[in-house]
Amino acid sequence: MKTLYAEGRRRELEERLRRLTAGSTPRWGRFDAPKMVVHCADALRMALGKLPTESKRLPIRHPPLKQLFVYWLPWPKGAPTARELLERVPAEWEAEIAGLLALMEEAGMISRDFEWPEHPAFGRMSHRAWGVLGYRHLDHHFRQFGV
Question: 20 to 30 Å CA-CA from 136: which of 37, 39, 93, 130?
Answer without folding.
Answer: 93
